Amino acid sequence: ENNFGRHITEAMYKACLYAGIEISGVNGEVMPGQQEYQVGPCVGIDAGDQMMMSRYILQRVCEDFQVYCTLHPKPIVEGDWNGAGMHTNVSTKKMREEGGIDEIKKAIYRLGAKHQEHIAVYGEGNELRLTGKFETASIDDFSYGVANRGASVRIGRDTEAEGKGYFEDRRPSSNADPYVVTGKIMATISEDVDAPEIAPLDKAEA
């Protein structure tokens, strides 16, 4: 009874499975009525295709339940409420190989060097969400850390422990265009440039 909208999320999950969407999980989020789902892993442009189709299915399922679903990153501005993002997990073949953590850090440094370019295409209304509070980083500053929800980019504990894996860009808003986001990330991390190193945030801030 405390997980508002769970029945809608579960119906959407089943509809996505039936449609062939690579949906890998659903869960209730911090704000009442806020629900999250994960799509992937996907390769290349398929990530955008899968996300856009899942959004369409979500809206159609909501119609059936006669409820309204918003993708606004901060639907309730007043008060202590979390926003909503389209957290994007990223890895390349090199990142998943032995010693991949070094490739992950290189990619993060490149993302940091172009922080504002990414913010510009990471969705509308993101300035209301990325305040440095409620498990977000400030929109004005770039940061990364291990298991730190307050960072712009997060490295998981498993990735750090294994020395390979993936990273999570937590900046894209819930209404961001997945084609633009994935394209921008890949364009930036694929550049053959050595960006300045960035010191990670303290794990204690997680």
Automatic annotation (TrEMBL):
Any one GO cellular component localisation term in the record: cytoplasm
Enzyme class label: ligase
Gene Ontology terms, MF aspect: ATP binding; glutamine synthetase activity
Domain GS catalytic, chain residue ranges per copy: 1-206
Pfam families tied to this protein: Gln-synt_C
UniProt record, GO biological process: glutamine biosynthetic process
Gene3D superfamilies given in the database record: Glutamine synthetase/guanido kinase, catalytic domain
Keywords noted in UniProt: ATP-binding, Cytoplasm, Ligase, Nucleotide-binding
UniProt keyword annotation of ATP-binding present: yes
Annotated compartments: Cytoplasm
Record bears the keyword Secreted: no
Enzyme Commission number(s) from the entry: 6.3.1.2
Family to which the UniProt record says this protein belongs: Belongs to the glutamine synthetase family.
Name this polypeptide is given: glutamine synthetase
